[in-house]
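Annotated sample (chain length 381).
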Amino acid sequence: MKKKRKKKHGHVDWSAFLLLILMILVIIAGIIGIIEILMTATETEQQPTEHREAKPASSFVLTKTNVEPTLYQPPVIYPSWEGDVQSLTSGIESSHAVLIDLDNHTVLADKGAEEIIYPASMTKLMTLIVAIEHTEDLNEVFVMTDDILAPLYAQNASMAGFQSGEECTVLDLLYGAALPSGGDATAALALHTAGSEEQFVQWMNEKVAELELKNTHFTNPTGLHHPDHYSTVTDIALILDYCMQNELCRQIISTYTYKTDPTPQSPEGITMYSTMFSRMYGTEVEGITILGGKTGFTDEAGNCLASYAQTSDGHTYLAVTAGGLTRWKPVFDAFKLYGIITGTYAMDATDTKTDDEEPLPSDAVQQVPQETDATETGDET
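Output written by the structure step:
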């Protein structure tokens, strides 16, 4: 009888089996990859072919259109000519003039108020505010140099009286630029705050753009004549308005006299007098008080004056004139302009003063409720 043979089971090669599985997965992954590449190529063909570069961060500028209209408040408000604007065809001897009701932002009287003028040292109103806004410490010290003084003396610029090598604070320089209209103080402020006059002037013109002035451009911080250094009496009034919004600037342009601390070059300090208050008390027009301002003069600009005044109830007005033939003309023209408001100073009042006459005596301002005395020092830029 034959015996049945047992079937032999073959041995399974697991490594080969795993290799086969791995190969299948690789093939599947490859097929998926090919499908994705084909889909991407199809999408790329559907995209526009225009190439666009990313804008640098500096190109994004915040403008009025980026701000909610209800939230935007300009630093100054351009005045309106609506209403009964008096045309100054006679009485005002300056070639250009404007009287503005600051509280209502309206023009009350006008003589070429939008025509181009040379602002002379009324420029220093802008110089003051730019220097103040770029200064952290008013006690910072600047050393005056011959490089600053020599060119100014050569141009016959008005000077505050600082000497080469003299240490002066930023506050000294601010008063020196405003009261005696010192070109030495003005140039020092520009160099100290900006590093160069060119950079400082750039800041001035940036501020012009910020205030949205219509016809103003500066080429220097002193007001020395340059054909591209111009403004209008209306724009100067708005710069004065902006100055008054800064407490320190308002204080400076409202001061009669200022004295620096003693230095080796000036053992008794330097006493500075306001070129405006050396020609007026401020109370000449009954019912309104002239509280501050800035004068100016060059041969091309004539005699100029920007001032602000208040009535007893605190209502504020601005008056700016340019093109006066003598240093007294803008003063009496200011009286006439403010007289329009009060009716207490005649438009046909005659100015009999000449440039040969002395300014107010040193004890005169004791009658005025402000700081000490005032006498004029030198010619003004």
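Annotation: The longest strand covers residues 288-298.
Annotation: The radius of gyration is 36 Å.
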